Structure formats: structure tokens, C-alpha cells
Amino acid sequence: MQFQSIKVLLAGYLGVILIGTLLLAMPPMYNTNISFLEAFFTSASAMTCTGLVIKNTGLDFTIYGQIVIVILIQLGGFGHMSMAGIIYLMVGNRLSASEKDLINVVDSLNNNSLNGIGRAIINALFFVLITECIGAMLLCPYFIWQIGDVKEGLWVGIMHTITAFNNAGFTNLKDGLLPYQADVFVNIVLSLLIIIGGLGYLSSIEISKHCYLRTRYNGIFTHKKSPTRLSLNTRVTITMTGILLVCGVFNVLIFEWNNPKTIANIPFWEQLINGFFMSANYRTAGFNIFDISGFDDRTMFFSMFFMIIGGGPGGTAAGIKVTTFAILVALSIAIINNRKDTIMFGRTIPQDIVSRAFCVFIIAVIYFSVATFFLSIFEPDVKFLPLAFETLSAFSTVGLSMGDRGGTLSLCADFNTIGLIIIIFLMISGKIGIMAFTLIFIGGSKTKHTRYVQEKILI
Predict the structure, then answer these.
(1) What is the pLDDT of residues 189-219, one digit of tens each?
(2) Any transmembrane segments, and where (predicted)?
(3) What is the number of domains present in the chain?
């Protein structure tokens, strides 16, 4: 990953966020007065697909303001790897191997030409549009029937489709999704959109292609080998996503079972649906079907582990990524078993990737710890757990919050100027990528050919 690539990427993000800020600050965009900082925060939250809100999207913004927010979400959700490719297509530069890694299409290219980059981006864009169209066809008629107004129901369905697939968590319903807690249809459709978006474009496209070829050549119920094999990246992403989803459901059911503020007084099938919905939201999106401030502290504490892991690489989710977490687990198993190689699904992971995964985790912990420390200084009236939860939610671009505004506003709505700036910094850094954003501060490093004498230290 080259330093110049990261600077272009950051400049592109900041430019779009600033344009969004200027648009949201215009009178036709809002119903209530909005400051420049509030507009900038909303624009950054939308562009980074976070979902932390300090203004009620359905009440404080007009339909024009909501359209701007949705456009920002769509641009940001297309993935910073794809955006980087688009930027280089526009300027006409050729990409090196490291720059192709930045846009996460190495496995899709056979050469260094921009034509290969363009085809990969077009495929991703096509997949996004098809998935969102299917989601809109499911949600729009349902919300029209629920709300009783064609125009409003149509817009609510479109916005929730885009925000769910892009893992943004914005809602233009005045009371949020709280009235839909027992609605099985809304819970399942939004959860599936969140999961698909969080898998990553390349993994989702590869799964679709694999299923199509298996159905075409072998049939669905045959045991013959498919003409294609899923890549290790996709297999790890699917496996870890499934495991984390199940663990997230158990996290909600175990600790919230007797909590009257959440799921204690509802039927068991609703508890399962709500647990599945919250599990899908933990790592990527920020929708609330009940007030998060009523959650037990144990639920919030363990959910923070899901938040820092995030979703799959090359998609709409941030965090350290499920693949990074899987590599760290495999590395730990290898060390315990006294093996030199890190093995996953019968494949050895290159040492440079293992080292990079460990580095990403360490840097993420440092970012989170430092940001929480400074927020605790500038927001002394906020309890530590909600503050840490808000910090990690911003850094992992999740959008969940323990704010007590009836589940419609985030905790940071009560933050002062410095607190909001810290949250904005976290959202942007989390979206661009931990390693990439860190390189902005330390600069590019030159390869050193000097080798030093080895010496052991005690562990």
C-alpha cells in the first residue's frame, strides 16, 4: 500500500464529506436549525456508514436533506477500495501491485491494466444495485401498507434498503424502528441486507457465482464437486460470520432473558428474532429495535468484542475484519500447539499477512484506548461503559449507541465540540482503514537492507 494512494483516498473522503456538509447546512435541507458542526458530523457519519446521529433524521431533516444523506451513504458504502479504484480511473494512473491490494481486487485481475480495475468495479456496482433493488421490492410495498401513504412508504423502504445494505443504520422514521420490534418481516429483511453488505462485495459475488455454477452444472442437491472452489478469503469470511452471528444471538438471549427493559416480557420467538437482529447489528450496522440504554452492562461489554471485529474485507463494514480475527485465532492455536505455520482450512497463511493482522489489532486497541481516555477527560459526566461503547461504535463504524433519547439519538448528541470532533476523527479513521490511516501520520517507509544481530528476550 503506497503512501500516495492513502493521501488520495483521504482527500477524496474529506472532499465528499465537506460537500455533504455544505449541502446539509442549506435551509431547504433541514426543518430545525442545524450548526455547521452538526452538519459536518451528520455528513461524516453518513459517508463513513456509521449511523451515529445527533439529529433526528426523520424530524430534523427535510426530504431533500434525507436524499443527501442517502447519497452520502451510498457513496461511502460502495467501499473505500472501490472508491480508490474510481479515483485512479479518473486520473488515469496505472496501479502497482500494492495499490491493487488497496482496492481489494487482486484476485479478480490478471494484469496491471486499468481495464481490469474497471471491470471489477463495474461488477461490484452491478451487485450492489441488484441487491438493493431486491431489498427495495420487498420493503417498499410493506412500508406502504404499514404507513398508509404511497410516497412516504416508498421513500422509507428505499432509504432503509440502502442504509441496511450499506450498514449505515440511519432511519427516516420519526420513532426509529422501535415500533417494529415484533415485526418479523422487517427484522429478517433488514438483517439479511446487513449481513450481505457486511460480507464484502468480492465474497458475495464469489458466493453468487459459485451457487450459480453449482446449480447449472450439478444441480442443487447433488454431491458432485462444483466447477469452482470458494477462495480461502470467502470461506473464512462465511465461517466467521456464521459463528459470530450465533454467538451474538446467545449474548442477547443469555444476558437479556430476564431484563424487563428489553426482551423479558415478549414471546420466545420474538426473543429469537430480536436476538438475531441485534447480532447482525453488533458488528456492522446501527439500527435499534429497542432502547440500547436499557441493555444489561454485561450485554454491552461482550457486544464490544463483536463491534471491534466488524465485517468482511472489501465491504461496507469496518472494524479489524473477521478475516483478521480468524488469523489471530489460528495464530494462537499454532503457538499453543508449537507449530511454526499458521494454518486455516488446510492452507498456510503467509507470515507477512499474519504479522499485518496482529499489527492491525494492536493499532486498533491503541486507537480505542487513547480516544476513550481523551473522551473521559472532555466528557466527565458520562459513565465509562457507555463512553467506551460510543467510542468503539464510532471507530468500528457500527452506529449503535447507549443514548437514552428513546432510541432515536446517539449518546454523542450531548457531547461538547471537542467530543464530537474526536468521534468524527474515529469514524473517518475507521472507515479508511486502521493501517492506512496510521500511515498518514508516520509517512511512507523506505526499505532498509541492514540486518541486526538477533538476541532473545523472556516472554
Answers:
(1) 999 999 888 887 677 777 777 776 666 665 5
(2) 6-24, 36-54, 66-91, 120-145, 184-204, 232-255, 304-336, 357-378, 418-442
(3) 1
